Structure formats: C-alpha cells, structure tokens
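User: What would this chain look like folded?
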Amino acid sequence: MTTTHVDGYLRHIMAVCAEDRSGSVADYIPELARVDPDGYGLSLCVHDGHVYSEGDGVVGFTIQSISKALTYALLLTRIGRDEVDAKIGVEPSGEAFNEISVDDNRRPKNPMINAGAIMATSLLLPPVRDVDQATVDRVYGELVEFYSACAGRRLTLDEDVYRSEAQTGSRNRAIAYMLDSFGVLDTDPEAALDLYYRQCSLLVTTVDLSVIGATFANGGLNPRTGRQVLAQEVAQRVLSVMTTCGMYDGAGDWVSSVGLPAKSGVGGGILAILPGQLGIGVYSPRLDRHGNSVRGIDTCRHLSTDLGLHMFNLTRESRVTIRSVYDITEFEVSEDWTERERGYLRTCRERVRVYELQGDLTFSGAEAAMRRLSDDIDDYDVAIVDISRIGVVDPVARTMVLTFKHTLDERGQAGLVVDPDRVMRDSVERHRNDQLAPDLLAPQALRGFDPTLPHVHSTMEAAVTDAEAFLLKRRLGEGDVFGG
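Assistant: Here's the prediction, encoded as structure tokens.
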C-alpha cells in the first residue's frame, strides 16, 4: 500500500546515505563521544500528523543546538519581537556555531549560534544578578512544557549529558561572561548557562523532530495533538531565521541545494521543515567540520531533490488535494452490456469509488491522496482517480499514482485514471528517461511500463465503462455466466 511505498523510498535513501562513514562524533562533550557512531534514523511527519519513520526513529538522543530554534520561539512568544530584536540580531554570522561573535552593537548576530542562544535563555530568566535555583528550575519546567507541546509528548532530560556539558563547557562559559562584560546580559550568567545546558540535554527522537517540524510548518498548530502551540507569526519568524542561520557557516550551500529551513545539533540530529507541508527529523551522529550530521545533510538533500521539496519549487500545491469522493450510483449503466449484466452492475455501483483530485500534484499532495485510497482499500473493488482538475503532475507524484494502480492489480482490484488533458500522459512522456521514480519508489511497478497508459481515460464515462467491464470479468472469473 501507499505507506509501504513511501517507507520503501525512505529505506532506499537511507541505504544509499549509510555508505558514507565520513565524519566523527562530537568528542568535546565526553558523553556524546560514547554514542554509537552508526546510529541512523529518519522520520517524516506530514501536515495531518501522519508519521513515516525508518531506522533508529525511536532512539533517543540529545537535542543539542536544535533547541535554539525552540527557545527562540518561546522567547518571541513571551516578550515579543521588538524586545528580542533589541537583544539578538538575525543576520548570518558566517562563522562556526561556537564562535565568540557579536555585531557592532554587541548583540549576538543571531539566535542560532551559541552566543545568541545563551542570550535567548538569559532573557527567559528575571533580570537580576542573583537568580536562585528554584527560579531556574521553574523556568526550565516552562521550557520543557513548551518543547513537549511542540513534540506532542513529554520530553525528559539526559542527566549524564547535562552534567558532562556543565563540567566541560568552558567555551560557552567564556561566551556568557563576554556578553556579561559587554553589559548586554541582564541576569546571572551561571543561571543562564545552567538553563542552556539543560535545554541542550533534552532527549528527542527523529519522530519528535518531525512532529516539531510539522508544528512549525503548520503555523504553530501541532497536527498530532490539534493544539495551537505558538502563533503563526512566531513560526514564520523562526523559519526565516532557520533558513539563513540554522546550518551555521554552511547555511548558504544548504539553502541553495536543499532549500528547507533547518537546524542541526552536534548530537547528530537535523530538523528540516517544508512550510505548509511537513517536518523532517534525521539522526546520524557523525559530523562534518561545520558540526552538522554528514548523513543527515545527504539525506535531506535526497529528500529535497528527489521529492521536489525545495521551498522555491513553485507549484500551486493545495493542501486539500482530494476535492470529492463518491461512488458511481449516479451514472447510468452502459448500454454495451446484456440485460442480465446490467442487472448485476446495478447491484454493485457502490464498489466503484471515484476520487476527484485538484491542484498541482507533488509529493505532499500525492502522499495524502494515495494514503486516503490506501486507508479505504477494503471498501471498493475499483478506484477511479479523476485528475481533470490537476494542472501539473511531477515525476514522484506520477509514480505514486501509477504504483498504487499496481498495488490494486496485485490485490485483484483495479485502479483507473480520468485524464482529459493528458496531464499524466504528458508527465510520462516528459520524464520517460527519468530514473528517479522507478528506481526509488516502485521498481516493480514501472519496469517495462506501457507508455500508452492502459486504463487511463479521457472521460469519466469511459472510466465507468471500464470499471463495469472489470466487475463483469471478475464475476465471470468466479464461475458465473451471463446470458443474453
């Protein structure tokens, strides 16, 4: 079924990316040096909360710098954009994540580098020089509540990593006291550092990251819980800063080649987001020289390129791809059949279901539509997919539709397409030599695929007649013979 097709694709790219064993785990934090360097998980959460997950998708790892995006969102929610902007810039630094970096006004250049993140955590604390532990604990509890609301489940702390970071975080301590010496830190530096180390040491999975991503993609609405966790304008602001600053000094290459707002962490995680559509979580702890997951970057590049997820991939994508669903009761039985055959066909009109699609069909829309057909698969014998209101069918979406037809064939059912404007046919002809779809999504479905597209019709009436022929043929195959 469709779920298997998407999962199969995720497994395929993981197999390709797993061959790269370059990079090394973060060893400057002793506890992180102990993780399995070959751990690898990938999860994708679409706009309605459905999650696809492969590999080590439920293995916990510390969120590390991915937390910066969440704390920035919480801070914007708490004190507002103007006050945050007065303290933290939004310009790319072009420097390493742990660089001691400020602008001409002695503000950290953005909230995605350590200096900006420590400033952000400090602004959650009261502006006093002596912050007691009870206050830090209270603010930390509020922070965990917010993170957990974004993830859709209660997150917990990795105590060992927290202690390890606190004991070895000399550079972060230097950053905090530098900000304090500039007179821009209004609270106790040690309290800000304690809060920062704790937020970085929260345990997440790639499933959590994908749900967090989908929450931001949906304008702050968690699709799994239905809870509005943050305002749409806050989500927009965070996604903007993630786009330009989230991948540190590798941000420019990331935006041009992957084109997704993203945030990485030295624990091996990457959070990537396609606004309005989905969230991605990847985990692989081998890091490149920028501190980003080697396999994670490669995985996201495959997802973006192969599935057309670049945010500047301009289409008229509609979230509600299925316009209408109905059976063929309203259509008269064809005059082509004998009276007995027509009598039989009148008894099973509800076993033919029509799905009208609309908009431009890319991966996100095709995934939602084919998953609906998959969920309903026991409720019909023939599915007619009407794409007469579809403007563009990209290669991956085309393959998903045709692969689902193949799935129905294997189950003894039938999948038909209504394509009056030759959208599907033109897509096949344009991409006749495109190896992406057959190789990655459905090798068995399209190997030797007939480019004339049997069971693709120019009118609904022709599709209904074809559906009737299928029902009659299957009835005859069960031993019945229709007389004249």
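Residues 2-307 form a domain with the Beta-lactamase fold (CATH 3.40.710.10). If you want, I can go into more detail on any region.
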